[in-house]
Sequence to fold (398 residues):
Amino acid sequence: MEFKITKKANLLTIILIVVGLVFTGIGVAVEMSHHHGEHLGQRLAGNLLIDGFFFFAIGLGALFFLALQYATETGWYASVKRVIEAVAGYLPVGMAMIALAFLVITLQKGAHIYLWMDPSQVAHDEIMQGKAAYLNIPFFWIRTAVYLATYYIFWRGFKRRSMLEDQVGGTDIHFTNYKKAALFLVFFAVFSSTSSWDWIMSIDVHWFSTLFGWYVFAGMWCSTMIVLVTLTLFLKKKGYLPNVNESHIHDLGKWTFATSFLWSYLWFSQFMLIWYANIPEETTYYLTRIADFKLLYFGMFFINFAFPMLLLMSRDAKRHAGILTFVGAIVLFGHWVDVYIMVMAGSMGKNAYIGFMEIGLLLAALGLFVKVILTNLTKAPLTVKNHPFLDESIHHEI
Fold:
């Protein structure tokens, strides 16, 4: 069955984008009138980075999850394979958005977000001088280009072979995907950490954590699972995905539950180890966030941990569309707040706040994200053909 975008859905995405841009304009006007544009460039650049990274990470998480199913030769996912591919298909747009954010920041000599990009800051800072061999603009862009090119090549290959498998069948394509996925996971294991160091951790240029890459990855994975289960429930409600049953929904719900706990475990581990060691150059990260963002910071942790624990613990809850959608929406926003704090606490500190600009750019980015995914769903039948595990997936029961 082929998916068609309804006029209502198309109108909703346009409204989100337009309202988002209007809110952004209001935010710019407020910043200019109340603060004389003192932090305008920094706030705009920071929000471009927040939304660019957040939605790019969801697309990348979908590509990772697809590769994981290939590499482990999982059978149950075949019925939702096109949903995963549609979300992963946001990657090219996500790459353009995050590259735009980096371009804006670079042209502003770091925009007071990446202090190591500003020669005047580096000249008076021994720590940044010591890191200059790695944290410099040319090498940053080279690494970013390598990350994005690698992700794009693997995404393009998986997409092409998925379409080809529908036509020719057999097991040759399956085993090619198996080998390519294993290779991708090797690259991803390294790049998902190093890119989080480059793009996010280097904002707090004096600070580092060996758990940070895993922490960002866990947030990415959890956000991706929320989008996948919500999109699957939406399509199922609209009469698509006839092969998807309660067991598939349950599995997606379990992944959401598990990745939420993984993120919570890593949040607490990083916090506890640094706080207990009480080393000044490490605890400064948390001192800033607790001093200026206490309610958001601990509230975000409570939402991302307590909501799934309390509401998704039971078997029935993982199969209930209303509960999954409600919890997913709350937790997804919680992870956006997590990214917001990672970027803004390290760059703007106490001058940061969530206003019209933040809400506007989030709505615009969300509208674009939904529009791209819905368009991707129209490009291929939602039920795969000739997949070796399709029959197993159709009869999946747990």
About this structure: The longest helix spans residues 40-71. The mean pLDDT is 93.
